[in-house]
Amino acid sequence: MGGKKEKLRITPILVPIIALAVGVLLGYLVFHKKERQATYTLAPVARTDNNYSYINPMSGCVDFCGKEFIMRELHWFRGDLDSYISKVRAKQPDIQVAYYFRDLTNGMWIGINEKYEFSPASLLKLPIMIAAYKEAEKDPSVLGVKILYNEKDFEGVTEEAGFKKVNGQYYSIEDLIGQMVDYSDNAAALILMKYFGEEKVAAVEKAFNLSIPKNATNTTNFVRIKDYASIFRILFNSSYLNKEMSERALSLLSRSSYKNGIRAGIPDSIGVAHKYGIRDVHDASGGLQEGYQLHHFGIVYYPGKPFILGVMTRGGTKEQKEQLVRDLSAITFKNVDRQIKNPDTVIAIERH
After folding, report:
1. Residue 203, domain CATH
2. What is the DSSP string of 117-164?
3. How would DSSP label each residue in 260-302?
């Protein structure tokens, strides 16, 4: 990749505009306060005979021959989910939750309160990532472009959750994408938004039905769980980005350092490509409601039966919502695992 260097100035006027789009000023994250430096430059995607690790392997026999896969319909397990959610809300009636499950091998899905709308917070950083990789399809060298970091451009932008950048140092586009996605780094999001342009990011948001409404504020609820989950389905099927860039995006998401929520409900041996977001708000008296909304989405790579799982929540404490997401994740995994391991109902097929 090229080593082109650029100076990119984030104007004071642009900061609040972009901040709304990525959920920066009031949506900063509080889970990773330790300052870090990291390099996210990815090697070429590891594959053998065009066999990718994270995207849909059933994209033709060339990618799939000789692999065992599981052909079966999962039985609905919504009853278990409804029962758990009812118990939670009986104790904490202010908590609202939407849930989405989709079997990526046959399309069966379960939705609970899927028409509820939420504030996306840092989830809107994924369209920035996708816009960047879309440009990299045309010119992969763009990922090696280095941007000068000027700390004066980011006064008022909270960096508790991100990386402590060094004033006057250059950071590559790929490193900035990694910092933005992994640690929800706000300065990285602002830099990328400025470099690629609001129009390109807006085009991605429109394609995924995530466009920010006019006159929206940091607390406007406008995202539905099924719409956002489509990002993961489309990345899995490489139907917006090409195979290499879809693989690159999901590989990056699979290395997220966030270990709570969905990730905590799935055994460590099972891969998960995931993204979370949290929205803090101030109540009428000016008090901070930390983690008022908390959302988590991902692809769980259960062997032969990958699935999408999404949970969006608001109300209660951050800890209560993290437990809610974790428990719904565990209930989902338990049901999938039990059904797949039932020898009376599983049909395993190997193609040659």
Report:
1. 3.40.710.10
2. EE--GGGGHHHHHHHHHHHHHH-GGGGG-EEE--GGGGTT---TTS--
3. SGGGGGS-TTS-EEEEEEEEEEE-TTS-EEEEEEEEEEEEE--
Handedness of CA 240, 245, 247, 253 (dihedral sign): negative
Instruction: Give the three-class secondary structure for 310.
Output: strand
d(CA 231, CA 228): 6
Give the integer Cα–Cα distance in Å for 189 and 116. 27
pLDDT at 42: 43
- What gap in Å lies between CA 196 and CA 202, rounded to an integer? 11
Question: Please, which residues have CB within 8 angstroms of residue 351's CB and are 6 or more apart in sequence?
Answer: 61, 64, 65, 66, 67, 69
The boundaries of the domain holding residue 34 are: 5-350
Least Cα distance to 67 among 78, 51, 83 occurs for: 51
At a CB cut-off of 8 Å and minimum separation 6, what does 91 contact?
Answer: none
Supply the mean pLDDT for the chain.
82
How far is the C-alpha of 184 from the C-alpha of 235, rounded, in Å?
19
Number of domains comprising the chain? 1
Q: What is the dihedral sign for C-alpha 90, 91, 92, 95?
A: negative
pLDDT tens-digit series, residues 274-321: 999 888 776 666 666 666 899 999 999 999 899 999 999 999 888 999
Among 251, 255, 219, smallest CA distance to 38 is for 255
Exposure on the CB side of residue 291, measured as CA atoms within 13 A: 16
Q: 344 falls in which pLDDT band (50, 70, 90)? A: low
